[in-house]
């Protein structure tokens, strides 16, 4: 077909959706935010309709309507059905509506619709201006030295923040539409020559299988993608584009969801959940020490109360005599058992932690820790708990704040009660059985085929150290072999 014949190609009439104005108004009669405006441009009767708050009003008045008016002064309205004439409007994404579903989706996603009375066809023109905020510092993560242009609720802006940092053609983005009602845009982002293709195929297949009416949270979406019930999170999240870039470079997959102000990182293992976006902004030695503190924190948070109850209630002979005498003296007059005492204090501290999350950031953290200590001191004076128990419970609660992932904090709190319960009944036997059960459970978790406790696919000492600690950039020349990457080299 020659270029000249292409210019006069007509849009097939049978593919154009047709509806009269009465039925069109009835279709949106219960949508008060859909506005109708009759127009008459060069004796052509047009009904303009759009969704208030979703379009750029000035662009409509100053660009689109004058462009249509100018076109109709020189051409017949039927000329719009020729593809070459549509291009002369010099407007982006101009097309005829071809179905009722497309009509409904278009008006609620920032398109202006022009209904022509003569043939009942509808021309859609993109004039999107959805409500959004500018990129700013995220409240999900503490930023000291890192960038402040963090993710917002607009998927286009979020993708642009990543693209700005990785202006390479190997950065790929594939878009899906999920949700029968919400029509939520979802993007799967990866680096083509770094990502593990087998994992990528699994992720995309799971997304394509999702059948749901609406997507309203990132965790809900990932439950559908992972398609399994597990206690521990199989993905990580971040509001910082720099941490997303780092995850992409290591071979992981990023999922962006329209309306969600953070990026989802998958697959995640236990050690990824202990990493902070701020680690790369600090010297390797300081970052490595911080990660070791987090590992210590998670063990202290999960096992300290159970260990203390087991040793004081079942095996006091394992304590030094001076410490044993202090513990016995401090418990004099307390009517509760050590297990019940620990359970009540844990519930009290968790109550303060939950209250701290619901209060403004400036006072929330202070209330959850200081408030718990003040109430704990009052409980000591009232004879409801001992000072030694308060110290153990307070240390366990404070240790949870060293963790980065909020989902992991909640899970650790549940594990703490599980360990405490078994230790309260069986002493050290229950303590070690609970610890062994947790490790066994973690070892059996798989995130898209990646073991949860995996340090490296082909284990070697350097990869294990690289997974846990932060190595200097001068010696960190290879990617971790956790994923099957075509390009294992990070620095020559």
Automatic annotation (TrEMBL):
Family assignment from sequence similarity: Belongs to the GerABKA family.
The record ties this protein, via Pfam families, to: GerA (PF03323)
Q: Which GO terms describe its cellular component?
A: plasma membrane
Protein name stated in the entry: Spore germination protein XA
Q: Which PANTHER family match?
A: LEUCINE ZIPPER PROTEIN 4, SPORE GERMINATION PROTEIN
Q: Which UniProt keywords apply?
A: Membrane, Transmembrane, Transmembrane helix
Swiss-Prot/TrEMBL GO biological process terms: spore germination
Topology in the lipid bilayer is annotated as: Multi-pass membrane protein
Organism listed in the record: Lederbergia lenta (Bacillus lentus)
Q: Which InterPro entries match?
A: Spore_Ger (IPR004995), UPF0353/GerABKA_families (IPR050768)
Q: Which residues cross the membrane?
A: 253-274, 295-314, 334-352, 359-380, 386-405, 417-443
- Where in the cell does this protein reside? Cell membrane; Membrane
